[in-house]
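Lab notebook, bench 4. We co-purified these components, and the gel suggests they stay together. Before we commit to crystallization screens, I want a quick structural picture of the whole thing.
Request: model the full complex, all chains together.
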Amino acid sequence: GAVVSQHPSRVICKSGTSVKIECRSLDFQATTMFWYRQFPKQSLMLMATSNEGSKATYEQGVEKDKFLINHASLTLSTLTVTSAHPEDSSFYICSASIQETQYFGPGTRLLVL
Amino acid sequence: GQQVMQIPQYQHVQEGEDFTTYCNSSTTLSNIQWYKQRPGGHPVFLIQLVKSGEVKKQKRLTFQFGEAKKNSSLHITATQTTDVGTYFCAGPRGSGGGADGLTFGKGTHLIIQP
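Here is the predicted assembly.
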């Protein structure tokens, strides 16, 4: 099946710093990738749709200036959490779709102190 | 907007008992997908149902898609400790085709007592 990787798997940072998370499709090209966020014991919530070569589409309530998304190539999308605060601590998961099936990366656990 | 509701939120069963989780969408879905997330892990795709009234089986797991394509269920027969985790249903946002992401239900946490 399709493989999606994420890096880093876990990151701890100080409040006010920025953190970059990478999402890669390893064996296929993805013109569209998705970024989700999952708080403990809760479901996945779509944050934004990352489109190769164009601007990302953000869901209502998600600040585009805080969560910067860059889809530089057909195999790489990055999410940068700028000026992170403790309330940004969460599990961030990317996915890419092939024929309506979404393949998820292993996720990145972000802890902001 | 589209809502996907899932019940129950938690289910405790004894090992060997059956388990069912139910999913309801506020809108008709082009397809419905089921995922399993183990504690500390990420969601793993289980199956996709497309046709009205469709039933699919994977060993002890039986998936159903309602006739109106708005509800679905996952039934596990004779649960085992390896079934522990959270089961999510998800429907495509927009018209489907994989271009708009998924709306997830809140998930059902399956807890199995040996």
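The mean pLDDT of chain B is 93. Worth comparing against the SEC data before the next meeting. Chain B has no helices and eleven strands.
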